Amino acid sequence: MKSVSTAKASLRLWRQVLVTWLLLGGWLVWAEESKPISEYQVKAVFLYNFTKFAYWPAEADATANTPFVIGVVGEDSFGTILDDAVRDEAVQHRPIVIRRYRRGETIAQCHILFIARSEKDRLNALLEQCKGQPILTVADTARAAEQGVMINLLLVQGSVKMEINQRAVEAAGLKVSAKLLSLAKIVNPEADEPPSQP
After folding, report:
1. Pairing mode, if any, of strands 151-156 and 159-164?
2. Could you confirm whether domain 2-186 is CATH 3.30.540.10?
3. pLDDT tens, position by position, 77-112
4. In angstroms, what CA-CA distances link 165 with 152, 168, 169?
């Protein structure tokens, strides 16, 4: 029992450190002593924290018994990392659950959808499935935000950088906090002007 509670405390401390880094604009894949934090550990914490920095319309909230679903479609590079990051956590008293979608499965009843790199050739089809639904789409593929993914997490020289397609967010009836927007590169593919820099 003691080792389980110690592990949970360690995970929470690690998550708080990364939240602080996020709020301060630090995106480095952080390492403590000889234990590096992997790219997908950082991305798992990002996904968890999007539950705090994004806002869904009231009709998407359902009841307190309805879980808040983070979905993953495609090759799952998280393993158990994402499950560990959200274990015992909640969004407005609703438990967070991770759902992995198989190829060809309909995306439904999902609040955040992580689209793996393996799905880059199916990206447009997946976005079409999500169209009209309050699903925050997240990817980690080059140019995904320009194709309509709402948040794109890219590893650049050892740092996780964030791109946000604000028009795609608004089209789904979602909102992201001004703080999150201020830390990201804003990608608006239809804009006449070049994208702003963080």
Report:
1. antiparallel
2. no
3. 999 999 998 988 898 889 999 999 988 888 888 999
4. 8, 5, 7
